[in-house]
Amino acid sequence: MAKKVQTDRRDFVKYSTLGLLGLVMGGGIVFSPYLEGKENKLRPPGAVPEKDFLALCIKCGQCLQVCPYHSIKLNDINKGTGEGTPFIDPNIRACYACNAVPCVLACPSGALDHKTEKAEDIRMGIAVLEFPDTCLGISRTPIPEGYDNKMIAFTKSVRNETPEEEELIKKFMGREGEACNLCADMCPVPNPLSAIAMVPDAKGGKRPEIYEGCIGCGACQDVCPTSTPSIVVKPRMTYEEYYGNKSQGIS
C-alpha cells in the first residue's frame, strides 16, 4: 500500500510539473507577441526586423565594445523583453553614424545586417518634431547657459574617452546664447540637408523639417537643449510610414 502511495505521489509530481511547464511555455507563446509589441527600442545600425533580431542576437556585446561613441547599451531585466540585447538611448548618447559602421562588422550572428556598410545605409527610425511648442528654434529662444556642461557630462563619465568623442564635444561647445539649430547642425548624415533642415515657421522662428535621408540615428534628440527633447526618433519607422505624402509645411 505504501509503495502504491509513493508511486502515485511520484506520478502526481511528474505530471503536475509537466503540466505547469506546459502552461508557462504556452503562456510565453501567447504573451510574447504582446511583450514584443510593447518593446520599441532604438536598435543599433543594421538591426534586422525585431522578431528576427531577438532570435538572432547572441547577446555577446561585441557591438558595444567597438562603438567609438559609447552609444550602445545592453538591455537589463528591468527594461522589458530582450534581456542582454543591445539598444541605443538617444537621451543619453545617440548613434553618430560611423562611416565604417563598426558595430555591424563586429556582429557575428546576423542580428545586424552586414549589408549596412556606410552611414547612408543605416535605417534605425525616423525623427519627428514631437513637441513643437518647446522648440527653441520656433520660439526664437537662444541656447541656454549650461548647455555645454549638459552635453559633455556623459562623455566625461566614460573612462576611455575616444578621439571621436573628443571631436564631437568640440563641435558641441561654444553655442550658448546662439539661435538654436543644433538638430540640423549636428546631424551626422554625410549630406545632412537630405535628412533635416531648419525652415521658416509661421511664428517667425525656424523649425526642423525632416526629409527622406533621415536615418533615425537620434543625434537630433541627443543634442536638443530642452529638458524634454522637442525632437525625437520613432524607432523602426520609415519616412513613408510616418509622413506619407503629407507635407510637413509651416505651422
From TrEMBL:
InterPro entries: 4Fe4S_Fe-S-bd, 4Fe4S_Fe_S_CS, Polyferredoxin-like_ET. Gene3D superfamilies: 3.30.70.20. GO terms for molecular function: iron-sulfur cluster binding; metal ion binding. Residues 47-77, 84-117, 206-234 form the 4Fe-4S ferredoxin-type domain. The chain crosses the membrane at residues 12-35. Keywords: Iron, Iron-sulfur, Membrane, Metal-binding, Transmembrane, Transmembrane helix. Pfam families: Fer4_7. This is 4Fe-4S ferredoxin iron-sulfur binding domain protein. It comes from Sulfurimonas autotrophica (strain ATCC BAA-671 / DSM 16294 / JCM 11897 / OK10).
